[in-house]
Amino acid sequence: MTSLPRPLVRLEGVACRYGRATVLEGVDLLLRAGDFLGVVGPSGAGKTSLLRAVLGTVAISDGRLWREPGLRIGYVPQVETVDWSFPVTVAETVLMGVTAGRRLPWASAAEKQAVAEVLARLGLDGLGGRHIRELSGGQQQRVFIARALLRRADLLLLDEPTSGVDVRTRHDVLHLLGDLNADGLAVVISTHDLNGIAAHLPRLVCLNREVVGCGRPDEVLTPEGLERTYGAPMEVLEHGGMRVVVDQPGRRAVPRRRGAR
Amino acid sequence: MAPLLEPFEFAFFRHGLIVATVAGALCGLIGVYVVLRSMSYIGHGLSHAIFGGAAASAAISFNFYVGAGLWGLASALLIGRVTRRRVIGSDAAIGVITTASFALGLALVNRFGAVRKSVDAALFGSILGVSRTDVWVVVGVALASAAVVFFGYRALLFTTFDPEVADASGVRTARVDALLMVMLALSILATMKVLGVVLIAAILVIPPVVARMLTDSFSKMLWLSSALGAGCGFVGMNLSYHLDISSGASIVLVGATLFGAVFAVTGPRGLRRAAAVHV
Question: Based on the structure, what is the number of domains in chain B?
Answer without folding.
Answer: 1
